[in-house]
Fold these 3 entries.
Entry 1:
Amino acid sequence: MHKRRPLSTAAVTAITAVLPIALAAPADAVTYKTVKAKAYTCTTGNYSPKKGFSCTYRYYKTVTARVYTNGSVYLKNAAGKWVSVNYRYSATTKALYMKDPVPTRAATTNMGHANSYGYMSSGSSRVDAYWDKCTPITWKVDFTALKKRGGNATTELTRLKSAFTTLSAAAGYQFTYKGATVAADGEDKHGVPVGDGPSGMFKAATGADITVSYSSTHVTDYNWMELAGNSTIGYGGSSWWISTVTNGRIAGRNFDGLALFDADFVHANEIAPDPTRSKGVDESKSVYLHELGHVLGLDHTTDRYQIMYPSLQKDVPARLGAGDVAGLKKLAAQPCFAPDSDEDPAAYLQRVAHSD
């Protein structure tokens, strides 16, 4: 049985650009040249979760500017004082272009309610299935689609490791990174999982407890239908198998976790993060935490201060809320499974699938 939940972005938001200023020249900008240039601005830039920030430049006025060796640009204010402005200078066109707006709003410190959590296996706060905390959980990642869309695998591996570390610190699970793998789309043209792995979502089993991959409508063999829409940027979950617990009772044992992420969204956040977000908000890491939360068994919540809220919140940092932590701790508090009571579920399904 496979249960997964998508994460959707909030609606595309139009913004009004603001030009932040600083009154002191940077210490390392000791030299500059004075230029006369046309200044272009964008007063109605737009942000798309798949494309990042975009700006249609419009001629503003011709100005005299100081362009420092570190790229800083200074203009005179109404009082005749040189102040820093949010422009960049192009020596090729000899023009000034407004930079993407810089977040200025502080992120929220509200952690929400500790009882704001639920589980995918039961649809409630009752634990019916969970990962065995007494066994290390391995994970692998396939960056193929991300790299083909221009993304930085090194940057995202650092983010992913940070997300796993955050989850481990909250719940005590032992996550072990096992390196790169090949995790291509195992669905048919109708979106039905027909792959060779236990869940059928990948063309072949990866040998890891949790497999991470990236999807894009522009990359052959990495175009999962679950992420083909304009708003869904993540997809995660796991399978479970009825197994015996050490105290003699039975419970669902999670295995074959998968987390898929939209390669274009992740790349857009590398080069042009949402300028309407609060300071310090890392939207890619938030999506990582959310989908991996699904992998561990957490369901969506109606509390917007939790990482398991079903849409990105521009003022909520990439961290676990009070309900997220409580839900994870309850999962990790479940008893361990008997080490030799059942055949490994993934191995069993593979053996049955090839028995004929």
Note: The helical segments are 144-148, 153-171, 263-271, 283-296, 322-332, 345-353.
Entry 2:
Amino acid sequence: MKLRQWQSECIELALKQYLDGYSHFLTLATPGAGKTLMASELANQLLTKGLVDLVICFSPSSIVSQDFSESLQLKTQERFDGLIGAKGRSLTYQNLQFLNDDFWRLFTRYRVFVIFDEIHHCAGSNIDNANAWGEQIILNIQDKAKYTLALTGTPWRSDAAPIVLSNYLHPSNKISCDYVYGLSEAITDDVCRVPQIIAIDNNNISVVDDEETKIFTSFKCLLSQSVIPYQEIIENEKVIKYVISSAHEKLNTIRVANPDAAGLIVASSVEHARQISSLMKACFNEDSVVVTYRENEPTSIIQRFRHSQNKWIISVGMISEGTNIPRLQICCHLTNIKTEMHFRQILGRILRMTDSKNQEAIMYMPAEPKLLEYAYRVKQDVPFEADVVKFEKITNPIEEDIDDEVSGTVTFDNKKTPLPKVELKINGFESVIDHSDSDESTAAVDDHFLTSSYEKVVNIFGRFQQESIALGLSELR
């Protein structure tokens, strides 16, 4: 496979720094840009030039570890199974704490090149502030490996701890990267798709408790008063139905051009995933693949889905960073994890460019304020000429039986009972889709646009509304 320009540049710079006496190199490349291929080619060149003897790779999940092993084997034409005669091994970070002294002695007997995929999982500038994985790296790899390569698409941690092996700039305290390839460059180079983010809201929400009924005009207003936790919103059956109905309709449209296009739904728990799968079957007669940490062979499930024609896969903690399923073009953010790192990693699953005719990439999510902030920051990362914001009021029925309620009110029953019942009533599934586009990309956008005005776009009583953060459309192509 021919290297992309950024991959060639990054490899050339890394080799130069290694030969100049620097042992560590940190690459920041946007999710979906092709970090695995770049790292594999760099490893191949180090082996071919006789600069290293072995290559060890650490990554955050078994599926990514397997992908790295296959990529390294393909590039080097060597085995990476860790057995006699192999040129190395691909492991997960979880393995770090269980490697014995015989393994660590490899670093004193051989010149070892170590690849750290998604290095932000490993924290610590020293033993005192390190997490378990960072501690093992500091004790056994730092200053012992011949060369190290750290890869990340999201170079920060939600706990603000320092990333292991990294340097930080003062006074900004931003991480210092040796090579940076952002989303803007990736879109311009046709390496990544232009994302579009759909934020779904409702403007008439009722919360009923023992004493009174409170009315809220958006999820933002509801959550700001801590009346209902976000978990109840994403687990509410009517919310799920609306999100997956919109996503399912869009996926079917894409599959007219790309018959193998697929969608990912990220759920908050195993029970939540099963609930979504049941609703997908009940509403659309559509089977979905469910993969969670409870499965015996989750890696095999993901691999089969990757090469199948199935439309939907629902994941709990198994498909986020690094997982390569290029046919994914739709994703639904229905998890209760609301960190920017996780948000961007989920979005990255649908950004990998393919040879298919349709290259749309759309994320659906509830209009939760933090998620909207992250969406706006993604918007700032794309090329200015692709900066188009579009608003949609979608009231199209996906299936006639999705909702037969008359009222347009979203009602949460918050009465003090042992098992409170949460009820959501939706009206407004009509046959017309009304589009209202903003000005062209030259229009100024206020810094707080998404978080301050998303619920004011369409004032239709009790109907779900969608905000499409169109981060560049077909004009870019």
Note: The mean pLDDT is 83.
Entry 3:
Amino acid sequence: MTKSGASKLTVVFRLSHMGDVALTTGVLSHWHEKRGDRFIFITRAGSAPLLENHPAVAEIIRLDDAVLKGMDWFKEARRLAAQYKDNRLIDLHGTLRSRILSLVWKGEVRRYPKFGIVRRLYDRTHAERYRKILEATNVTQRYAMALGGKPPAAGHLTPRIHLTDAERDEAKMLLDNITNGRPLIAIHPYATHPAKQWPREHWLTLTSLLASAGMDWFVIGHDDTPLLPGHDREFTNVTNLRDTCALLAEADMLVTADSGPMHLASGVGTLVTALFGPTAKVWGFYPAGPQDTVLELDMDCRPCSLHGGRTCEKGYECLASQTPEMVMEVITRRFAE
């Protein structure tokens, strides 16, 4: 890329997990369509494939974990600031690393309202006044506010992941032997934190219920212990990130807990049924598709944490008490329409 071309672009910074990066893609599309903006996107190498082929993304800067540590990040931040001198920077992360980059940046810096203090106050008090502030916008709307103005409705900012025809064809081939024109349900049974993990026996029961109802299904994700090792419907640890997105694009619905693949499914236009337990709408990460469904229980202790990382004296009742039959009712109701 020439220096003159780079000067016309805005640099966006967002690291963290794949779901967080996926959530930026609809916002990039919104800015591109409404303002004509195009972007240089800085992110971790592992999440970068989600941005490939995006019409609003001119360049992806893939950062390895090694360069993000200690003094190496100071050096890299200075290098990036010098390379993209006078370009605007949008910080969509709001962490120490992004603050360091902002400090050395040689141009305009924009940030989104993270509501960090309000989130902490709500986490400690569950006070209604803080809940109302947080639920007024979701995370994608807050991202959109980085460039000012009132954000559009959340439904206009859902993720957008752009697959190639070859990727879609490959997914069709992988699924060819397990589909028969019936509703096809993708299952993501894994979670980063134990508190966000729907019990394994519930997932196994759900697969049996789907089979009994004459529906097709398959399992996606990455985990040390696949749900059904050796099963022909088991794709855990088989596909890379973009291949997983292509499989989700073939499904009629994804069933998952609060997870990154929830946002991947939204990005390829697939319905989502999401089981929420320790996390809740107030944190801003609900799926925003018009026909998406969130299953949750009304419990005084919810939400108990921002990311589901705390232990639970009640045995994670908020998720464990949601039965496979409850999930199956949502699925059958949707495909009976």
Note: The first strand starts at residue 10 and ends at 13.
